[in-house]
């Protein structure tokens, strides 16, 4: 699989198995917290790493936003009603308040991003397997 070493040896860390949110992911993801929401800080920041084929379910940040900064590998992000967007190292994607979306690895590629997230997250259904399978890898 592509980019395994790049993702696992990332300067922002690989993290631990993301068991707390595993029910919202298809496949294994790993979480390395960088900034936790604290008093007078209403956002968190974490490095999230995805094994090949791992994506999260549709979700929205109903009272905030999310900024994704690709740090390794190749992956995808898609907003509801829009075409999927490929992410490569250095790419930045902003998801506005309340916009339903998903993100994760390509079928044959490890993927990592920093997620800067504000507000509550509402989780929805898994991404359609056929639609994901049809993405160019």
From TrEMBL:
<dbReference type="InterPro" id="IPR011051">
    <property type="entry name" value="RmlC_Cupin_sf"/>
</dbReference>
<dbReference type="InterPro" id="IPR013096">
    <property type="entry name" value="Cupin_2"/>
</dbReference>
<dbReference type="Pfam" id="PF07883">
    <property type="entry name" value="Cupin_2"/>
</dbReference>
<feature type="domain" description="Cupin type-2">
    <location>
        <begin position="48"/>
        <end position="105"/>
    </location>
</feature>
<protein>
    <submittedName>
        <fullName>Cupin</fullName>
    </submittedName>
</protein>
<dbReference type="InterPro" id="IPR014710">
    <property type="entry name" value="RmlC-like_jellyroll"/>
</dbReference>
<dbReference type="InterPro" id="IPR047263">
    <property type="entry name" value="HNL-like_cupin"/>
</dbReference>
């Amino acid at each position: 699989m592509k980019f395994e070493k790049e993702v696992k040896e990332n300067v922002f860390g690989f993290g631990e198995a993301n068991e707390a949110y595993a029910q919202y992911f298809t496949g294994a993801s790993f979480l390395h917290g960088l900034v936790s929401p604290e008093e007078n800080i209403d956002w968190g920041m974490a490095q999230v790493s995805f094994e090949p084929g791992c994506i999260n379910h549709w979700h929205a940040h109903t009272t905030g936003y999310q900024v994704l900064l690709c740090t390794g590998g190749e992956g995808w992000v898609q907003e509801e009603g829009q075409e999927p967007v490929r992410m490569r190292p250095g790419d930045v994607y902003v998801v506005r308040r309340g916009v339903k979306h998903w993100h994760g690895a390509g079928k044959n590629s490890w993927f990592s991003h920093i997620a800067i997230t504000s507000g509550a997250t509402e989780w929805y259904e898994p991404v359609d397997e056929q639609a994901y399978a049809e993405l160019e890898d």
